[in-house]
Amino acid sequence: MYPSGNATAFPVLVNSKSIMEKFDVVIIGSGIAGSVLARRLAEAGRNVLLLEKDSFSGQTTACGGLFDKAYYDRYFADEALIEQKIKKNVFIMPWGEVVFDCDQVTVKRRNFDRGLAEQAKEKGAVLRNRSKALDYQIRENGAVTIRVKELEQKTEYDVQTKIIAFADGPQSLARNNPRFNSDKHKRFWAYAYAYETAGVPFEPDSIKIYLDKELFPWGYGWIFPNKSDSNIGVGTVLAGKIGNPQIKKKLFHFIDVYKRTAELLSGSEIIDKKGGFIPMYLIDTFADDAQVVLGDAAGMVSPLFGAGIDYAMDAAEACAPVLIKALEKEDFSRAALLEYEQIIKKSFVADLKKQIMIARIIVSSLKFGRHWAIKILAVIAFGVKYSRWNKIKILFYPLLGKPDSLKSVLENMNHK
Ligand SMILES: Cc1cc2nc3c(=O)[nH]c(=O)nc-3n(C[C@H](O)[C@H](O)[C@H](O)COP(=O)(O)OP(=O)(O)OC[C@H]3O[C@@H](n4cnc5c(N)ncnc54)[C@H](O)[C@@H]3O)c2cc1C
């Protein structure tokens, strides 16, 4: 059986040339996952269409733009798109700070994603901006039709492909296929809202993350420096309970009222604002007949840190060779495409599942009081920074006084 995006077959629409275009792979979404996949497929000489609903990649993407520098270096030989090189992650909690060394960068997604999409185009992928995938239909193995809306002309047309890759972010069209969707996922969403504000309020090689029940029982506020401005945001896994407007209000609180940040941020000029959902679950399987799902569309985001850039790149790198092989063998069955799933299961899926389990434990701990989630996160995620006695102090804080963190540990921080 070949599930369709739509229960009823749609009548075929062709473009003005009256010939339906055919591609080896159509990728929906030119975010990080989509553009990296398109580049790799185009480098292998494959005929790829990359569809993007926005005027350019990254235009409306809400993001802090922080990730490991090694991932930047994988795609760009020069550092033109780096805003800042980050050497320290400072986590600020009610009882004090822990500092981790790191080797990360900040980027502006509207520049970075555009850069990745341009690379895919230079390698030969067909990039169509303002082109939204509306629906898809899988007629038989290797015959997929996708309905595209050209948002400028407000016209619709169909394209044909052998494989469809869903890299269309959290609200993915892949959810129309029951195999990639289930009710149990629906409860687990985070929402984050971020501003870009003029100026960098502290040493530009550090990022600061604030965990405090005054901000959220579980969630955090962040300040990430760019070149001449900062990305400031708040996000929580309790988005469903709190509501998105309350999260925006919390950002005002973080900037103007919260005592640890108000003196750094109050009165800052706002340059840009964006919010977005972060999936806090992984889908159960990542491939089906003639279909693959990657990046946020598949829930590949750390539920502890809301970070998904590195995962999106890893997923695209794992997916590309499997699609190339499927095209060579003309076998687009689920069995053939499941090799992609096997690769990511070996590389990062097990780790993500562990993080999801920890996140669920942390959320459940809120039953015992608003302060428990941050305490448990500190003990589990930052435990390497505290001796056993200091972990006990955290759990009983403030009864036993403030814990001391260990100054130097070998462990580096990455947000995966
Ligand atoms: C506020 C916020 C802050 C974050 N900060 C960080 C951070 O600092 N570090 C980090 O690692 N992660 C962060 N994340 C998570 C990170 O942004 C995502 O994990 C990452 O963007 C996933 O990349 P992707 O390519 O899978 O999806 P996306 O970046 O969401 O790209 C999907 C693309 O598909 C396009 N699209 C969607 N639907 C269609 C359609 N039907 N047709 C055509 N195009 C379509 C979209 O316009 C978009 O360009 C943050 C998320 C939020 C919300």
Describe the structure.
There is one protein chain. The protein is of the alpha/beta class and 416 residues long. The chain folds into two domains: 21-59 and 110-181 and 285-358, FAD/NAD(P)-binding domain, CATH 3.50.50; 82-106 and 186-279, D-Amino Acid Oxidase, Chain A, domain 2, CATH 3.30.9.10. It has helices at residues 32-43, 69-75, 109-122, 239-242, 244-256, 262-265, 309-329, 334-365, 372-381, 388-396; strands at 21-28, 48-51, 66-68, 84-93, 96-106, 126-128, 131-140, 143-150, 155-166, 189-198, 206-210, 219-225, 229-236, 270-279, 287-288, 291-293. Strands 1, 2, 6, 7, 8, 9, 15 and 16 form an eight-stranded mixed sheet that branches. Strands 3-5-4-11-12-13-10-14 form an eight-stranded mixed sheet. Helix 1 packs parallel to helix 3 and helix 8 packs across helix 9. The radius of gyration is 22 Å and the shape is globular. It starts with 20 loop residues before the first strand and ends in a 20-residue tail after the last helix. The mean pLDDT is 92. Bound molecules: flavin-adenine dinucleotide (FAD). Flavin-adenine dinucleotide is lined by residues 28-34, 51-54, 57, 61-67, 132-133, 167-169, 173, 192, 194, 233, 235, 276, 278, 295-297, 301, 306-309, 312. The site of flavin-adenine dinucleotide has 40 residues, from helix 1, strand 3, strand 7, strand 10 and strand 13.
Helix count? 10
Task: Using the coordinates above, name the CATH class of the largest domain.
Answer: Alpha Beta
Please identify the structural class as seen in this structure: alpha/beta
Element order, helices and strands?
Answer: EHEEHEEHEEEEEEEEHHHEEEHHHH
What is the residue-averaged pLDDT? 92
CATH arch. level architecture of the largest domain = 3-Layer(bba) Sandwich
Task: Please count the beta strands (DSSP E, at least 2 residues each).
Answer: 16
Q: Unreliable runs, pLDDT <50, ≥5 residues?
A: none
Rg over C-alpha atoms, rounded to the nearest angstrom: 22 Å
Sheet of most strands: 8 strands, mixed
Portion in strands: 25-35%
